[in-house]
Amino acid sequence: MARETEAAVISGVSVDTRHWIGGRRVASAGTFTDHSPIDGSPLGEIARGGPAEARAAVAAAKEAFPAWAATPRAERARILNAIADGVEKRLEELAIVETTDNGALLRSHRRGVMPRVAHNFRFFADWLLRLDHEDFETRGHRNHVSWDPAGPTVLITPWNAPLMLATWKVAPALAAGNTVILKPAEWSPLTASLLADIAAEAGLPAGVLNVVQGYGAEIGDALTSHPDVRRISFTGSVPTAGRIAASAAANLTPLSLELGGKSPLLVFADADLDLAVDLAVEQYDNAGQVCLAASRFLVEETVAEEFTRRFVEKAAALKQGDPRDEATDVGPNIHPRQLEKIDGFVQRALAAGARAVIGGHRGDGQFYAPTLLADVAQDSEIVQEEVFGPVLTLQTFGTEEEAVRLANDTRFGLAATLATGDAERAERVTAQLVAGTVWVNCFFVRDLQAPFGGSRQSGVGREGGTWSFDFYCDLKNTVTAPTGWTNHG
Questions:
Q1: 262-316 pLDDT, tens per residue?
Q2: Which of 162, 208, 327, 375 qualifies as a cystine partner to 188, CB 3.0-4.6 A?
Q3: What are the tens digits of pLDDT across the range 34-66?
Q4: What Å distances lie between residue 46 and 50, 162, 217, 290, 477, CA to CA?
Q5: Residue range 208-265, pLDDT digits in tens
Q6: Quick one: CA dihedral 48, 33, 258, 94, positive or negative?
Q7: Average pLDDT in the 122-136 region?
Q8: Is 371 left (phi over 0), alpha (psi -120 to 50) or beta?
Q9: 251 phi and psi, to 5 degrees?
């Protein structure tokens, strides 16, 4: 790792640390230092944008919008596929930069995450070409529904899976004919800069994708309150979403919000316990920094002891360490502030009477020991609030009704995971769970054509497949009378 004036150099990969606005690199008067969570080393000085950069990015997006909106679908799809080609060509570079910047496993980036980034562009390019509604008639009048590009779109993305989550938004927004202002998280900004380079090389016109960096409200408020912004999509915390909603309210800017979760894993006595334990241990993925994580284990009383024994045995075999090591299972947490937050949750829970079945303490550097807490009350902070770290809780239930009640008893509703051997029970329980996604005897199977989002305080709206175009477009219905034409040529 090295540092240059306007570049971060990661394992030989040079990443420009300036903004990308209107098809060119733009510096800021101020910068902030980006650190690697692996060892705390500085990676580069990142341009620290504010209202001026926000206004410039929106202006560039506004100027580029008419031409991009008028670009035929086939040409937009061609460019999106070219971006996917660029991602695949630079897959190894993207993987090592992202691992160094946010601490997630390099093996996961190589095999799953970066291929998925390319797939995001290919999927929405393909979906765009077959996006259509059948015309229908009303009293002889023809109804034709079309998707009109909405305009400049602000996308604010999180640090836990920076490029994959950014391109979940960037790809459909561009496919829809919108221009984009992408604001990546300040704790993991580097791969967004590489995406700007890849998009430019693929032939995306100047101003269609802009990337601006900065700290929270310093730049965010100017973006979300701008009257020329037509859509805002945000993934992150509930408090930040509230601030964005308030900022957007004056212009009635439509919002898509994918927020936090406190998702349950329900394990019934008729479940395949080995499968249930595998699902449970998988919740330590990305050091627990996954919004969809089933961080609350709800286990039927008759199998709770055996489930716990098998879980502890399997969790103890996890290797925590350098995420660039192929053998590592659990990497570091993203930032010292996040580590303090995680430990605060755990220590308060222990002081309130919780028992650490495993873990319950920090490791070296920015590592937190994989933790499972038992003897926790349903109304306790550790059960009700999102920790966003490798911290899970264990509760038991006696009846199906109690399991559903406990599962639904939070302010969130992002996801739920269910382990059972009874198909009828699975159908009954999933029908009652408050969640945007329910997995039955599996976890984290995500198809882009399915709707994705949360209920309650886990979000507003759905994205994926046609739902993405419904959000990123203004839907228009044209009603045409069957008669009255004077020109029949």
A1: 999 999 999 999 999 999 999 999 999 999 999 999 999 999 999 999 999 999 9
A2: 162
A3: 999 999 999 999 999 999 999 999 999 999 999
A4: 13, 16, 16, 25, 45
A5: 999 999 998 899 999 999 999 999 999 999 999 999 999 999 999 999 999 999 999 9
A6: positive
A7: 93
A8: beta
A9: -100, 5
Are the C-beta atoms of 38 and 332 separated by less than 8 Å? yes
Q: Are 61 and 182 in contact (CB under 8 A)?
A: no
How much of the chain exceeds pLDDT 90, in percent?
Answer: 95
In degrees to the nearest 10, what's the CA dihedral of 109, 46, 200, 83? 10
Size of the chain, expressed as the number of residues it contains: 489
Eight-state DSSP code of residue 112: I
Per the listing, tokens 């002889």 go with 140
Decide: 66 and 107 in contact? Cβ < 8 Å.
Answer: no
190-to-9, 92, 313 alpha-carbon distances in Å: 10, 14, 37
Please provide residue 117's backbone torsions phi and psi, each rounded to the nearest 5 degrees.
Answer: -60, -45
For residue 293, give Cα distances in angstroms to 391, 415, 417, 448. Answer: 10, 8, 9, 19
Q: Which residues are known to be catalytic?
A: 258, 291
Is the pTM here over 0.90, yes or no? Answer: yes
Gap between the Cα atoms of 377 and 379, Å rounded:
5
| pLDDT at residue number 488 | 59
Torsion of CA 258, 348, 364, 101, to 10 degrees: 20
Edge-to-edge strands, sheet with 24-26: 24-26, 19-21, 209-211, 180-183, 153-156, 231-235, 255-258, 459-460
Average of per-residue pLDDT values in the chain: 95
Beta strands, E only, 164-316: 180-183, 209-211, 231-235, 255-258, 264-267, 296-300
Cα gap 208→60, rounded to integer Å: 8
